[in-house]
Predict the structure.
Amino acid sequence: MIGVVGGGIAGLTASIALAKRGFDVTLIHKGIKNTNSYLAQAGVAFPVLEGDSIKSHVLDTIKAGRYINDEEVVWNVISKGSEAYDFLLSLGVEFEYTELEGGHAFPRVFTIKNETGRHLTQILYMRARELGINFVEGTADALAIKEGKCYGVFVEGEFLKFDATILASGGYTALFRYTAGSPMNTGILIGDAVMKGALARDLEFVQFHPTGFIGKEGVKLISEAVRGHGAKLVNSKGERFVNELEPRDVVARAIYAEMQEGEVYLDATRIEDFKEKFPQIYAFLIREGVNPEKDLIPVSPIAHYSMGGLSVDLWYRSTIENLYAIGEAASNGFHGANRLASNSLLECIVSGLEVSRTVFRDRPRLEDVGDVEDTSEEPGDLESVREILWRYAGIVRNDVGIKRGLNELEGVDVDPRIKLLAGGILRAALERRESRGAHFREDYPFSRKEFERSIFFSAASLKRREGL
Ligand SMILES: Cc1cc2nc3c(=O)[nH]c(=O)nc-3n(C[C@H](O)[C@H](O)[C@H](O)COP(=O)(O)OP(=O)(O)OC[C@H]3O[C@@H](n4cnc5c(N)ncnc54)[C@H](O)[C@@H]3O)c2cc1C
């Protein structure tokens, strides 16, 4: 029996691929609408059209990642783009057209009505149901890890034993005050695995999307495609202050700087047929009392994507036996210091398909586990953690602030696994005394040769550093 935690595009793809190989699969989830996959707007990058090439997509990915991507992983994932594309078509997915997004040298982003995630998630979910995947609705509170081996998960007090456990639980952007993603994506199981001996990687790299909308209904995203169609960013004096099509980190920092003086708006009034082009965005803005065809849209950067996660190898094995990680929960150097737009869904599908082959090869079989402890805890004061990370590990960071953040974190009464992960993000941000991709240090505004590498984080390294 194989257990998959998380019902986004990565978890659903892995479940389908495993079921096709004859495995019994249990998927633990909180409904497809609670996934970031469901919210994905623009699309999926595939280098499969005439005139495009794998090499061109690889080079774009490494450039966006500011040259610290694991090149073998990048080649591996992107060369499986045609297999991933074919997999979706075999399920009946019909893309509408392709778009050019920031950082891509070719219009290779396949989209469906700018609600690509919703369409893909629904189709994958239906296929998983047809294949007889056992869906368990609930929260996986803790991993059952003992002496370096994973035996399954605890779901609301019940121990579910698995031969292999696949973490597809998304990233940790919900640890930041503002995000348009699922509030469940706190990365708690990444923190749990690290507490039990696993390695995490690249935790300091969190991508901030420039144009979030913070409204009465919560935080939503105004996709890059709106700027791609000509929307302009203006400050409270009505002045443009940045080229809207610069990379996400550049635009997010420019907005952040303007916001120290006042509001920032997106002017989309010159886009023809906004309603038809962006039906989802139009609908929520209207509900919020903003008509994008006439009004300026107030925007703010928001935490959008975690490049870091549970450290896995090329084949999605973590450093804990029988524990695998895929999609945004995993980190193996594919994205480097900054994710190229629409590469995330590509990674979700490729890693979901790939991990099924790895599990098939590894053939994990568990002997008797004996007693294993359920280490789940009350969540505690998550809001303070979100405030601390937003303030001290946000768009602009510096040594004094990060140290203050670490100090304040010590005093917060929160689940220790969240505290460990949040501390890991701050510590990695402190250690990286340079600016690279999504990580910007105002006290070290340039990239430095000595940091052309990933930073790994483990509970053991933390103890060593603190002399415990
Ligand atoms: C608004 C928005 C727009 C985006 N647009 C794009 C885009 O156009 N193209 C692109 O490539 N990427 C996009 N992204 C990023 C992309 O959507 C995500 O990186 C990707 O969907 C992650 O998929 P996943 O399967 O790894 O995780 P998710 O889709 O996040 O699914 C993980 C699920 O696991 C659940 N979970 C977490 N912990 C537990 C637990 N302990 N027990 C049970 N369940 C748990 C979570 O609730 C979540 O539902 C966007 C992200 C957002 C937020």
